[in-house]
Structure to design on (305 residues):
């Protein structure tokens, strides 16, 4: 194959595990189906239950939507690779997969920041909550998160796939991701790396700081409440979101901040990437259904119908 006229990539992230490919296929198929059913149930419950037609649950519905879309960008192709041993993906298919993955993950980062701000207003300014977080403002914030996520991805996708590829077409991952694709380039990657660092840094840091500062104020306000019952009620309104934030950022930092050339560590990193891309979206609806009374009631009514 002429690598100067690259038409496809080979995803080798799972090719070194032939002896466990069928158990992996079954495990990830079950996890993916649970993710679809769990997040779909929350979406349906929020849509049907009139009491849940509030800004907080509108944000949760968008999170569930993202938790359906994110694994859907990578898992079907991964399952096909496991079942057929065909690890190829077309150049255009790889670009589209990277575009949607970066867009959806970026949107989730922004959405978690908006959700943290929503909880900050609810706990720190409860009497003004309905004035500050109106349905219109909530819709504007959510539209902004989706627009920012997809715009951010356009820039990264164009800068990544404008590179020349002549080293290899073997992607050391089970999906197309920026670091692995850039590593295959034989042209200068300076601009692509600078764009990833600067734009990703600005967007990611601003969203992370918004989330962090919101929770600093939230925790500070909760600690000032004198009664234990008041503290418990205040904390219960943001506990589910805090768990989701910790899970999201914890796995993301562990996945992207520890790169190594060791083959054993690379194999472990690929497994962690799978957990980050598949397990986290499955756990989010479980966390909300277990920790949130209103969601539990709505799900019970949905199951009883």
């Amino acid at each position: 194959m002429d690598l100067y006229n690259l038409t496809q990539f080979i995803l080798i992230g799972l090719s070194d595990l032939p002896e466990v490919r069928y158990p992996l296929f079954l495990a990830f198929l079950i996890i993916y189906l649970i993710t679809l059913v769990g997040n779909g149930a929350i979406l349906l419950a929020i849509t049907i239950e009139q009491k849940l037609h509030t800004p907080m649950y509108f944000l949760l519905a968008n999170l569930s939507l993202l938790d359906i879309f994110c694994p859907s960008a990578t898992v079907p192709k991964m399952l096909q690779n496991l079942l057929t041993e065909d690890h190829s993906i077309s150049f255009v298919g790889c670009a589209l997969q990277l575009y949607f993955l970066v867009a959806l993950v970026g949107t989730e980062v922004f959405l978690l920041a908006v959700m943290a701000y929503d909880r900050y207003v609810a706990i720190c300014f409860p009497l003004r909550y309905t004035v500050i977080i109106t349905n219109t403002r909530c819709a504007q914030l959510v539209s902004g998160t989706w627009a920012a996520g997809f715009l951010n991805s356009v820039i990264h996708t164009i800068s990544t796939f404008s590179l020349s590829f002549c080293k290899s077409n073997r992607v050391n991952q089970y999906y197309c991701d920026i670091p692995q694709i850039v590593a295959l380039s034989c042209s200068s990657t300076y601009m692509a790396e600078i764009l990833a660092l600067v734009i990703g840094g600005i967007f990611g840091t601003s969203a992370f700081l918004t989330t962090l500062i919101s929770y600093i104020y939230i925790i500070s306000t909760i600690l000032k409440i004198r009664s234990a019952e008041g503290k418990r009620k205040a904390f219960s309104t943001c506990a589910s979101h805090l768990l989701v934030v910790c899970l999201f950022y914890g796995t993301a930092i562990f996945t992207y901040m520890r790169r190594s050339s060791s083959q054993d560590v690379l194999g472990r990193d690929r497994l962690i990437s799978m957990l980050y891309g598949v397990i986290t979206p499955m756990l989010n609806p479980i966390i909300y259904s277990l920790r949130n009374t209103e969601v539990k009631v709505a799900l019970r009514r949905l199951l009883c119908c």
